[in-house]
Design goal:
With about 375 residues, the protein is mainly α. It has a domain of about 200 residues. Helices cover about 75% and strands about 0% of the residues. The chain is built from 14 helices and no strands. Helix 5 runs antiparallel to helix 12 and helix 13 packs antiparallel against helix 14. The protein is globular, with a radius of gyration of 21 Å. About 5% of the residues have low confidence.
């Protein structure tokens, strides 16, 4: 990595995240699984431990997890320019595809029929996640205490406990146990995570309505913890109850975010277009994603410093094992929702067999294969 020039690094970052932005179906857990394969297994940019640390750090800040992971990776690989390039390349394919659906929806009042493809994609994605999370789980379970914390986190996640509380709780518990073991419990741990207040001033926007959209989505992007799956409630409160959007439009927007590749937050592009056309889509998209770039830029330099401190390193270990547990819980819930009959069971078994038997198979092929099987099985049987 040190021998590569900056343009070469940027080109590699752009190429990788454009690809992931196009093939990244299935939500944050699937995206992170694909990134793990690409940057740890295939390209060996990071060790499994550092990748795991970045997952833990990402889960501690608001915003779309997989987008923030892309931004972290870009920053580590190619500095500030890499941060911007990785984030933009991962986001833009989803935005353009979502804009196309938004235009079709505005013209014809309904979405195209793509359900047969999604039917097969979901079981295949579960296989991709399981294959990626297994080595990370092994890496995170360093001690018996961390194993217990992981099982506790998994249980709490499955019963619906807030994932932010789970991760911070596991981190602080691991840190306390380490401090007690080493007799070095000290105050001042609150300084680990500086709170960032994002202020926007002197903003020039095309219209008052667009400024309002920008501020709404800037706020959501700055405070929404966890994955994009909890975005619905925030959007309902901010847009539906205020009369800016109908609930059916919101449901359709979330559906578009789920069956297009890339981050689920691209639903916001669809919403902005319905409210105020192309300019509404633009300002809404910038608003929702902008905080992620700021938060990662502020947090990334702290990750290695935390790992080099025994006490703060234990905090990261606790957060990491909780993050893995939460991904496993998401995988389980996805399985309950998507593996519902013999066709999806068959797709899931074949996908798992391929991912675990052929370690170097590209996850994109598994996803495309699942979509193809889903379509064929649906039209044949």
């Amino acid at each position: 990595m040190e021998n590569e020039s900056q343009p070469v690094r940027l080109k590699e970052v752009a190429s990788l995240f454009l690809k992931l932005g196009v093939i990244g179906f299935g939500g944050p857990a699937a995206h992170i699984a694909m990134m793990q394969y690409e940057v740890v297994t295939r390209r060996k940019w990071f060790s499994e431990q550092h990748f795991l640390d970045l997952i833990g750090a990402t889960n501690l800040i608001p915003g779309p997890n997989s987008t923030e992971m892309a931004i972290h990776i870009g920053y580590e690989k190619a500095g500030w320019k890499g941060l911007i390039v990785a984030g933009m390349c991962f986001i833009l394919p989803a935005i353009f595809i979502t804009l196309l659906f938004a235009w079709l929806y505005k013209q014809y009042g309904k979405l195209p029929e793509i359900q047969p493809f999604i039917y097969g994609i979901k079981p295949a994605i579960i296989a991709v996640i399981l294959a990626a999370i297994l080595p990370l789980a092994k890496k995170s379970l360093k001690t018996t205490e961390l194993g217990i914390l992981g099982l506790t986190a998994l249980t709490l996640s499955l019963v619906g406990f807030n994932e932010v509380y789970i991760m911070f709780g596991a981190g602080f518990m691991a840190m306390v146990l380490t401090a007690i073991r080493n007799h070095q419990f000290k105050s001042g741990a609150g300084s680990i995570f500086p709170l960032t207040i994002l202020q926007i001033s002197n903003v020039t926007i095309l219209s008052v309505s667009n400024l309002n959209l920008f501020l709404i989505f800037l706020k959501i992007g700055a405070i929404l913890y966890g994955s994009g799956y909890v975005l619905f409630a925030f959007l309902d409160a901010e847009l539906v109850t205020t009369g800016l959007l109908s609930r059916q439009q919101l449901i359709d927007a979330i559906a578009v975010g789920q069956f297009t590749p890339g981050p689920l937050f691209s639903s916001v592009t669809f919403i902005g277009y319905q409210i105020n056309g192309w300019t509404g889509a633009l300002v809404s998209t910038i608003g929702i994603f902008l905080p992620s770039f700021v938060f990662v830029a502020l947090l990334n330099p702290l990750v290695r410093k935390m790992r080099n401190s025994r006490l703060f390193s234990s905090f990261l270990d606790g957060v990491n094992v909780a993050s893995v547990a939460i991904i496993i819980a998401i995988c389980y819930l996805m399985g309950k929702e998507s593996i519902t009959d013999w066709r999806t069971i068959l797709i899931g078994i074949i996908s798992i067999a391929i991912t675990f038997s052929f370690k170097k198979v590209n996850s994109a092929l598994v996803v495309i294969g699942g979509a193809t099987m889903g379509y064929l099985l649906t039209i044949i049987f």
